[in-house]
DNA sequence: GTGGTCTAGACCACT
DNA sequence: GTGGTCTAGACCACG
């Protein structure tokens, strides 16, 4: 798990995204057990309170659930929920696009940037 | 000036962006005087200290400069600086694109979103 | 930390210099944690907002960085940045020298002054 | 007269220094008349209030005096007063020197800087 | 009138 | 506990 302890994005958000990424990529499947708060805290050297916060948020979103005494598990419909939640990212892209266009950036430069990102991602995925 | 006093993005950052927008759109030109701290504070009902912070930041960026007792003015090369600073937005777009692609969003949907944003922006600008 | 609350130089600038001095002298080393805003405010009896301003400025200069909830730390390359920034002091010395020479002060008196300053500083440092 | 309207040093201080410089260099001699507030204001495009402030300060220092209805004149002992006042510059040089030495600048570099400044000044003076 | 600094005190998000 | 933002209100220097 790739966490930047000193960046501006909150650690608990980074953890949420990383777990979502693992679910989306299939590393974690529905009904799989998540690592315990303590275990994950040790593994990535983060305060357990922070892990707890991430997990609570994921539960709140319905992406995982905890059964007392047994542990915490990925929800059956985790994938759908994650996909739904990401729709807001399109909104963010719109805002950024507007900002760039307002500054005189040519549209095609932005489109190219998106396409190149897709290619790079594909290459990296294929390499694995 | 359009400020959301109760949103998550700090007021002072919103002000910075609004001023940049006014410079980029030509409402404010290089060497123009910016509204005084107190005047702007009154106009948008924000505490003068917050305006001061926005202005200081803009000065730090080299977008404006101040002479005590005289006022604050747009730098000659403000446009270039703003454009340079926005380059990081491309980076943000890349990250968001990756996130969406990872979730299975088709590339063309993202590209379409960008193109539609550009069209909408153009229409709004032409209407003026 | 030695602060003159009622002098002409702003408190926040004095704090910046004092912190830089502590880094240069090795009291604070790269990656060390700086005193918290509140702690330093208490220690030197200055309003936390003023400390915050000093720290923000130091961050702007790249001399330290902060992670909310964790604290504020000296940058790895703090020393280099501080040294680079002080180069402007040479410029100031030039201007003052010109002023003195224009008034008829003999060059050697100025040079002597510099040398004596160095000796005094060395003596004080050696005494420690 | 060389004034930087947009720098950080107050305009009225710059004017004071420029006038002192003219006296030291002999352009203005004791008992010479200074330009009137209005005339100087026009000449260098500065608010008369600012000129007034500079003149008041110079009077306060004893460098000039005004005789109502006649004008403002350079004092007989202006040169001595200016020289005396500049002694504080030595103090400033000391402080800057300490700062540089603390950062590891070699003493000889500072001394060289002073000597070079003197040479440049001499050359410029000889050229005239 | 302008910008700049400072205090006091509050509230929020993050760890 | 940490940093960050904001308000209210004051005071100063400069033009």
**First-to-last CA distance of chain A:** 17 Å
Low-confidence stretches of chain A: none
Q: In order across it, which strands form the biggest sheet of chain A?
A: 1-2
Task: Please work out how many helical segments of chain A DSSP would assign.
Answer: 5
- Overall strand count of chain A: 2
C-alpha Rg of chain A (nearest Å): 17 Å
Helical fraction of chain A equals 55-70%
Quaternary structure annotation: homotetramer
Biggest interface: chains and residue counts?
C-D, 32 and 32 residues
Range of strand content of chain A: 5-15%
N-to-C series of helices and strands of chain A = HHHEEHH
Coarse morphology of chain A: elongated
User: Given the helix and strand composition of chain A, which structural class is it?
Assistant: mainly alpha
């Amino acid at each position: 798990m790739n966490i930047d302890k000193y960046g501006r994005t909150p650690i608990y958000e980074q953890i949420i995204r990383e777990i979502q990424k693992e679910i989306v990529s299939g590393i974690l499947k529905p009904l799989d057990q998540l690592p315990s708060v303590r275990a994950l805290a040790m593994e990535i050297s983060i305060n357990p309170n922070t892990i707890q916060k991430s997990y609570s948020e994921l539960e709140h979103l319905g992406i995982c659930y905890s059964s007392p005494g047994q542990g915490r598990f990925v929800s059956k419909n985790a994938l759908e929920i994650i996909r739904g939640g990401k729709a807001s990212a399109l909104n963010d892209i719109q805002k950024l696009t507007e900002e760039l266009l307002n500054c005189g950036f040519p549209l095609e430069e932005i489109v190219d940037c998106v396409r190149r990102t897709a290619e790079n991602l594909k290459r990296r995925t294929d390499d694995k």
